[in-house]
Every structure is written in C-alpha cells, then in structure tokens.
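Summary of Year 1 activities. Much of the first year was spent building the evaluation harness for sequence design. The harness presents a backbone, in tokenized form, and records the residue chosen at every position. We chose the following record to illustrate the format because it has been used consistently in internal testing since the harness was completed.
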C-alpha cells in the first residue's frame, strides 16, 4: 500500500519532463521533492528525494512495483510518460525496495496522440485513450540509440508490455561497458494478483549475459490493513537461480488529523520495516519516518570476473525528520536523515564487493516559488559519511528554473560538482542544462520546435557517461 502522497503533478504534457523528447527527465521543480531525476539509454536512472539514491527508491507503474528483484533498481527511461503522465512523489520507506521515497506513475486516460523527431533522425509516436494505448520509436543521440515499443491496457485489469533494444557507447575508458542491451517487461494486475516479468540480455565485445526476473504476488485486504505475498525469482548468468518469498503487511491510519503508515516485510531470513508519522497543519506538514531495506539479489549473490556479492550484509536503516511549509506561491522544505549500515560497492584488490559503511548523515533545505509563468527552486544539501567524507553524487547546491508562456518555454538546471568515489579523490564537473521551445496551436493540435542542451555541454550525471550535445527537436501533440 502506498502512503500519503506528498506531491502529485501532471508531467505527460510538460515538455521539459518528456523522456521521449530527451533521455533526460527532471523533477527538480516539483515542490517538496528535493531532488532530481535523470535518465539515459543505459540503466542509470535514479531519483534524489531529499538526498536519496536510486537503489533506495521504489518505482511503481499504476501502483505496481517495477523495481528489479535482481538489483532493486528501476530505470525511469523505461516508462512511457505519454501513457503514464501523472507522477506521484511519496515520502518514506514503504516497500522492500524503498529507503528514501517512492515514485508512482499513473496512466493518462484521455484520447490523445503525439509525434516526435530530432536532428539525429530519432523519432517516436503514440496514441492513447481510456482503454489503453501504445508508444514506439527509435531514439538516437550521438553513438547511442534506443528502439522501443510499449503498450498498455487500462480497462478492467491492468497490463503493460515493453520491449526495447539499447545500443550504448558506454563509459569512457571502459570498452566492456559499450554494447547492446535487450529488455522485455510484462506487467499485469488482475483481481487481487500482480505479475512482473523482466528479461534482459547484454552483449559486448567480451561477454554475453542474461537476467530473467519474476515477481508474482497477491493482495489481501482486511479493514485498513493490506497483506501482500510475493514470490521473487531470478535466473541469471551471474547470480544463478535464486528464489525468495516475501510476506508484506501494511496499514494506514488517521488519528485526530494525523497520518500514520506502517509496514513490515520478511523474506524468511531478514525482516524489513517502514513507518511514517505526519502532522499536517494549515500551512505546514511535519513528519518522522523510519525505514529498513533488505539487500538485493545482486548485493547478496552476484558472481562475476571482477565483482562478487556479500552474504554477510546487514540491512540499511534510517531515521528521518522533515518539515514542509507552503504559503501561496512560496514553499520551504527542510529535513534531517541519519543512516546506519549503508550498502556500497567497494573495490578491494581489483574485486568489487558490497560492504556496509558505518553510516552517514544528510540534512538540507529547499526553497521555491511560482509566479504566473515563472518557477524557481533552490536546494542546499549536506551529505556526509561517518568518516567525514562527502557522499557520492550528492550536489551541495542545485538551481532549477523554468518560464512558460503560450508560445515559448525555457528551462534551466544547474548542479554543483559531485564526488564520484567515497574517498573524495574523483569528481564529476558541474551540470548545466538549458532547453528552449517555441510552440503554437493549429486546429487544437500543439506544434513545438525546440533546442535542447543549448550550451552544447557534455554533462555527466554519472562519471564516464556524457550526455548528448545540442539537439533540435520537433514535436506535435493533439487530443481527439
């Protein structure tokens, strides 16, 4: 069961948030979310909800969990936001895969179509209505390409099918990260049952590997308590064949206007939990939450030429305090989080192995405002390990702004340089993106001409993976 929604916003028609316009997706301007999301043609997507990390965020598609049982990640670039155009940002740890927060993508059920082209000869198109829809394309950028098809049925039971083939140039200096990735996702929700099948093949100049993931579950409702039983399985060229059951119980309660959401889950060997207590007032919400994440299959069982899992890992645990204030066009958010037994992959003697870091602390604030067509957001984040070193990929300062009118839209994002290793000896340079669009309407259809990454900067959201350069785009959207 998903807890109380912190933020809900339409993203399917917001140009700067379209992954089929650009592999970059941003939630920077959503109030109270305190973070950003980035996507790529590789499995690098992540979200920072109040200082979070991709491995600790649960991602849902119409309330169905889509995180990989294998690695606990979910790639946001593998979601059609034309078909699923409403984003719910939810705080707290509320599933076996949630440590920092949750993202839930809801379907768009109006009758509409779109088409997209860019100067790299990339294209995509789609159609949707109240019964379902489809989205397909061949997106290109530099040496990378993504060919995909995604379809969904919304009426009655819920089904989703996605097939994609990604060719990535990989990480600079590491030719083994350059190759072809083929993915298949089958998702179903019918009556009280949930089904998720994820198939992946990877092929490069050195190896060919595969992963097949399965999650099958049933939901039982009892008053305000929900019970979910999962069967998770993986068959992998690296991990082998592993099966684990997960028993999950969740309950929500409102007492004197205050909101309580708690849950407990176990895989038979480990116990995880999450709980959120929030106190809503007229202009503010105060919250306290605890969370506990069970290690993934990869973290426990991975086997490879240069990496191995660790069966002695402890669960990650956290205590979080937050306060959110909103008055008219202004909002201010502040938080503190204490983390214990952080799981991170460390290189020892040339072998990568996950280890429990002693812990860390994160605190920060976010300020934003919206006046007519202008939005602005500033984030200040402090994130340190107990050793005193700064946590990886957490920017100290983040600025985001956008201006939108009937004929013009401009979006801007800046992130400070971020350390890319725990010893703080390497870092990635600052991020600067600037996108501009001209749009006009003819017979109820919206036509858009845009220029993305105007500065032509090779931004690296993850070390060694530079983004594509300046890109011309053309886009049409219409309702029938």
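For this record, the design step produced the sequence shown next.
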């Amino acid at each position: 069961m998903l807890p109380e929604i912190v933020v809900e916003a339409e993203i399917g028609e917001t140009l700067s948030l379209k992954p089929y316009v650009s592999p970059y997706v941003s939630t920077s301007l959503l109030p109270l979310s305190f973070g950003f999301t980035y996507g790529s043609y590789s499995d690098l997507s992540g979200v920072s909800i109040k200082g979070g990390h991709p491995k600790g965020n649960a991602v849902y598609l119409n309330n169905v969990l889509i995180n990989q049982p294998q690695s606990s990640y979910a790639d946001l670039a593998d979601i059609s936001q034309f078909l699923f155009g409403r984003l719910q940002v939810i705080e707290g740890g509320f599933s076996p895969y949630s440590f920092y927060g949750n993202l839930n993508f809801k379907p768009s059920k109006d009758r509409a179509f779109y088409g997209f082209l860019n100067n790299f000869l990339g294209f995509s198109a789609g159609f949707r209505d109240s019964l379902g829809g489809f989205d397909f394309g061949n997106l290109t950028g530099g040496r990378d390409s993504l060919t995909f098809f995604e379809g969904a049925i919304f009426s009655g039971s819920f089904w989703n099918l996605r097939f994609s083939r990604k060719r990535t140039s990989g990480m600079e200096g590491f030719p083994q990260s350059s190759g072809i990735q083929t993915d298949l996702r089958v998702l179903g929700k019918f009556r009280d049952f949930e089904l998720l099948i994820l198939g992946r093949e990877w092929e490069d100049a050195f190896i060919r590997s595969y992963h097949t993931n399965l999650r099958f579950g049933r939901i039982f409702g009892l008053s305000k308590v929900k019970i979910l039983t999962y069967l998770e399985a993986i068959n992998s060229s690296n991990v082998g064949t592993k099966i684990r059951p997960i028993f999950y119980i969740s309950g929500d309660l409102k007492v004197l206007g205050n909101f309580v959401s708690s849950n407990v889950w176990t895989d038979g060997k480990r116990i995880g939990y999450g709980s959120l207590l929030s106190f809503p007032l007229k202009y503010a919400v105060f919250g306290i939450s605890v969370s506990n994440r069970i290690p993934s299959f990869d973290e426990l069982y991975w086997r490879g030429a240069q990496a191995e899992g660790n069966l002695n890992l402890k669960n990650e645990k956290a205590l979080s305090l937050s306060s959110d204030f909103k008055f008219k066009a202004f909002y201010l958010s502040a938080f503190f989080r204490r983390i214990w037994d952080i799981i991170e992959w460390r290189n020892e003697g040339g072998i990568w192995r996950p280890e429990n870091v002693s812990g860390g602390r994160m605190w920060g604030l976010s300020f934003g405002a919206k006046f007519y067509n202008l939005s602005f957001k500033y984030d200040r984040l402090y994130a340190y390990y107990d050793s005193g070193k700064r946590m990886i990929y957490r920017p100290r300062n983040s600025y985001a702004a956008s201006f939108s009118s009937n004929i013009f839209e401009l979006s801007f994002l800046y992130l400070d340089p971020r350390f890319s290793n725990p010893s703080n000896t390497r870092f990635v340079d600052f991020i600067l993106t600037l996108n501009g669009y001209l749009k006009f309407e003819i017979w109820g259809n919206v036509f858009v001409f845009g220029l993305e990454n105007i500065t032509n900067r090779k931004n690296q959201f993850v070390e060694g993976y530079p983004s594509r350069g300046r890109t011309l785009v053309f886009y049409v959207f219409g309702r029938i």
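The domain at 7-479 is CATH 2.40.170.20 (Maltoporin; Chain A). Quantitative recovery figures across the full test set are reported in Table 2.
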